[in-house]
Structure formats: C-alpha cells, structure tokens
Amino acid sequence: MDRAVDAARRAFEQGRWTGQPPAARKKVLLRFAELLLANRDELALLETLDMGKPISDSLGVDIPATARCIAWYAEAIDKIYDEIAPTGADALAMITREPVGVVAAIVPWNFPLIMAAWKIGPALAAGNSLILKPSEKSPLSAIRIASLAAEAGIPDGVFNVLPGFGHTAGQALALHMDVDCVGFTGSTRTGKLMLQYTAQSCRGISRCSWPRGSSVLLLPPAIRWC
Hints:
Elements: H1 2-13, H2 22-38, H3 40-51, H4 55-76, E1 83-85, E2 93-95, E3 102-106, H5 112-125, E4 129-133, H6 140-152, E5 159-161, H7 166-175, E6 181-187, H8 188-201, E7 204-210, E8 216-219, E9 222-225
Parallel strand pairs: 3-4, 3-6, 4-5, 6-7
Antiparallel strand pairs: 1-2, 8-9
C-alpha cells in the first residue's frame, strides 16, 4: 500500500499528469474510453465472472456506461474554466480549480467498473493521481483497466490499482497521511468507518452509502452534498 501511495505522490509532485496541458489530458482520457469499448468483450466477461451478473448486462450496460463516463469527464477538461468573481473596482478575486493531489477511490463489488468510473473520471480529469481499491470480491476488471490506462498514455504512478480487503487495504488508505482525499461508495456501516478513519487523518472524503441514499461529503472547509 505504501508503494502505491508513494508512486502516486511522486507522479503528482513531478507533474507527470497534472503538468500536462488540458488538451493533452483530454486526448489521453478519450483514448482510454475508446480502449474500454475496444476491449468490451473481455471486460464484460471479467465483470460477469467476478460478480455473477448476466453477460448481456455487462456487455450492454456496464462497459458502455463506464466508457461514456470517462469520455464525459475527458470532454469537460477543456470546458470548465476558472472564474473571476464580481468585486468592486479596487479589488480582483479569482477562483481557480486545482487538483488536490493523491486521491484514493474505494468501490463496492456490485458495479465494479461503473462505480470506479464515477471516481476515475473526475479525479484524473482534474489532474490528480489516483489509487483505486476495488472490492476483494470483484477486483479483476479494475486490474485489467489499469493496463488499458497505461496503453492509453496515462503516465506511470498516476493510475494505480490496489486490490485487498476493506479492513486492511481500505482502512490503510483512509488513514494514510499522504492521501489527500478519499472517495468511497459502499454500505452505511463501512461509510461510518470511513468517516472515522478520514477524521483521524484530517483528510477530505466524498461518500455515498446505501441503503439510506446520499450522504454528506466532508471536504474541509466546505460541506456539500453527494
């Protein structure tokens, strides 16, 4: 786990991804989306083997939705700008959008690729380094897309996949002092643990838990809704 975090941190600090022009990052993520579709048969089979859904669903829903999500965020890279806030004539206020650094993404077993894409897309589009922790019950597709990300041109250390159990790998990521933000989707019980872990490490967390619907995101100093 420490090696994955160290690799992500080095990639971020060296600007391997965040230092690239927006148009270049957009091109790479669009290529990533294309590779997901080009390898849809293999990825769909891995999804079905891992968590048992009909292959027709994996082929017709999960893989296309995953690729669309990545492509959507790729297109947003050069379309969401910084802002100049309205002020008096004697002041200038600028709003800039910057990557937070190293993002840990923890996803559940039931929609492995779709829910991973919900976190991969915005994290990489913003220029962050990412560590994806898939469920121990369904890690195969996550491992495969890591190689597709590299093939698409995402630099080494920017997109890392860390399989493991929640009580070991997931907890360690949430507590790690060199992880800047944690994105989590899972049960309410585990979501409560994530809040405890990130509170100890003073890290921001975006959290969506079921079955009780959306829950608050704690991204200091702001509080917003999922």
